[in-house]
């Protein structure tokens, strides 16, 4: 009888212990669920903020590219007019030197270390100096350099816009 009573008490204690464990686990699971839910909400808010910031940067870069486009177009129009006026003063061979001047100025703006381009640019200036004033030649070179630099800047902005990725949800 004692053995039955001890076994009954043991069984009762085990049942109580199982209930406590179940209640404890349920409570622990609830707490963990709440913690994960809060973390998820915070993470989602952070992602939304990142998306807003990224979209603002994209908008700024697009606005900058629009302004750059306008500046580049205005400078190209001015350069085209200067080149046309200059070509009227030059024969065919000298007009080729004018084209070389423009190309070498662009190359040097992109790569300042190109000795061959520097030599060709100097030679073109020398050949054109016979019919064009030094100021005209320098103005053409300056406009070509500005255009090239703005186009490089525009490409960098474009590359930055295309690199911005919205994080997956």
Quickly count the domains.
1
Q: Work out the strand percent.
A: under 5%
Q: Provide the gyration radius in Å.
A: 37 Å
- The helix content, as a percent range, equals over 70%
Low-pLDDT residue intervals, each spanning 5 or more residues: none
Overall spatial form: rod-shaped
Using DSSP, what is the number of strands?
0
Class of secondary structure makeup? mainly alpha
Q: What would the average pLDDT be, to the nearest integer?
A: 81
Topology pattern, helix = H, strand = E: HHHH
Task: Quickly count the helices.
Answer: 4
Question: Termini distance?
Answer: 65 Å
Describe the structure.
- With 169 residues, the protein is mainly α.
- The protein has helices at 2-88, 92-110, 115-128, 134-163.
- The longest helix is centred in the first third of the chain and has 87 residues, at 2-88.
- The relative contact order is 0.10.
Outline of this structure?
With 169 residues, the protein is mainly α. It has helices at residues 2-88, 92-110, 115-128, 134-163. α1 (2-88) packs antiparallel against α4 (134-163), α2 packs antiparallel against α3 and α2 packs across α4 (134-163).
């Amino acid at each position: 009888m004692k053995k039955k009573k001890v076994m009954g008490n043991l069984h009762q204690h085990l049942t109580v212990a199982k209930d406590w464990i179940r209640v404890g686990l349920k409570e622990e699971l609830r707490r963990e669920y709440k913690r994960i839910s809060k973390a998820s909400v915070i993470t989602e808010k952070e992602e939304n903020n990142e998306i807003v910031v990224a979209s603002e940067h994209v908008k700024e870069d697009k606005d900058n590219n629009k302004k750059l486009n306008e500046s580049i177009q205005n400078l190209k129009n001015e350069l085209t007019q200067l080149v046309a006026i200059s070509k009227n003063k030059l024969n065919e061979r000298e007009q080729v030197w004018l084209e070389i001047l423009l190309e070498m100025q662009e190359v040097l703006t992109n790569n300042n270390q190109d000795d061959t381009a520097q030599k060709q640019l100097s030679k073109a200036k020398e050949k054109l100096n016979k019919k064009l004033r030094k100021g005209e030649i320098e103005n053409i070179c300056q406009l070509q350099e500005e255009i090239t630099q703005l186009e490089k800047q525009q490409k960098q902005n474009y590359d930055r816009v295309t690199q911005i990725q919205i994080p997956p949800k």
